[in-house]
Amino acid sequence: MKNLLSMEHLTNRELISIILRAEEFERGEQHNLCRSYNVANLFFEPSTRTSTSFEMAERKVGCTVIPFDASFSSALKGESMYDTVKTLEMIGIDAVVIRAKEEAYYNELLEGINVSVINAGDGAGQHPSQSLLDLYTIHKEFGQFDGLNVTIVGDISHSRVAKSNAIALRNLGVNVRFLCPQEWAGDFEAHHSWDGLLEDSDVVMLLRVQHERHENNKNFSKESYHEQYGLTVEREARMKKGSIIMHPAPVNRDVEIASELVECERSRIFDQVRNGVFIRMAILESILKGREINDEVHSKYSIAR
């Protein structure tokens, strides 16, 4: 891989290889890249988990992190994304990690840019590193994907997490279901009640309610959303034995999930944050070093070449 832009561009072979490498990193296998690669993180939207997780991962694999503050960059003067990235390339940057409001912003970088581009979120488009850490979290729990039932709950139409995970999970043989209000489904077929979903879900994946998108909707209230679509204590008690709760965070407590469930026995919400560092280490190594994909992937997962 030269870039990581969308889950649509990753083969099962590639994503399983990244998961297995993350597993090695978590077991304590350390590896510095052959030389110190220069990486810049370009975050044009607010971020806590993704931005700090990438920086931690970059430092752990031996990259030199070049500071970039979007609020003081030439983008404020009207500089295009292409010109910003090309400038960093000429300075000596090897890879850029970018989050932007524009969906598929990376299309303008595919011609003429020679640095590696890692998409850290593009509008309501894709969030591939979040999807990979979610897959890693599920893999650690169940050891496989085929035949699992995953229910994704929330603002599906605006969620890059939902879209990225739907692509990857379905490609791996997972039965993905959506639950949301009718007006939040977009182009996806969705359930509009919990009936028939809780009892057989291996994973309940909750999404942040994007209040900024619904602040003018007089029909929306946090209380009614929690009552109809939130994971309440009563609903958690009905969940399948061995099933887990996930959420990409930040969490709106008592909206998507009852506050007392955020760190309950089923919850993997903070584990996901920890797993993100190992996954992003594996992503960086795969892209910058061009690490070969081991044939163990094929024998273990019967994935076609």
From TrEMBL:
Amino-acid positions noted as binding L-aspartate in the UniProt annotation, renumbered to this chain = 77, 160, 208
Q: What is its EC class?
A: transferase
Q: Which gene encodes it?
A: pyrB
Subunit structure, as described in the record:
Heterododecamer (2C3:3R2) of six catalytic PyrB chains organized as two trimers (C3), and six regulatory PyrI chains organized as three dimers (R2).
- One GO molecular function term? aspartate carbamoyltransferase activity
Q: Which reaction does it catalyse?
A: carbamoyl phosphate + L-aspartate = N-carbamoyl-L-aspartate + phosphate + H(+)
Can you name this protein? Aspartate carbamoyltransferase
Q: Name one GO cellular component term.
A: cytosol
Organism from which the protein derives: Ureibacillus acetophenoni
Q: State what this protein does.
A: Catalyzes the condensation of carbamoyl phosphate and aspartate to form carbamoyl aspartate and inorganic phosphate, the committed step in the de novo pyrimidine nucleotide biosynthesis pathway.
Q: Pfam families annotated for this entry?
A: OTCace (PF00185), OTCace_N (PF02729)
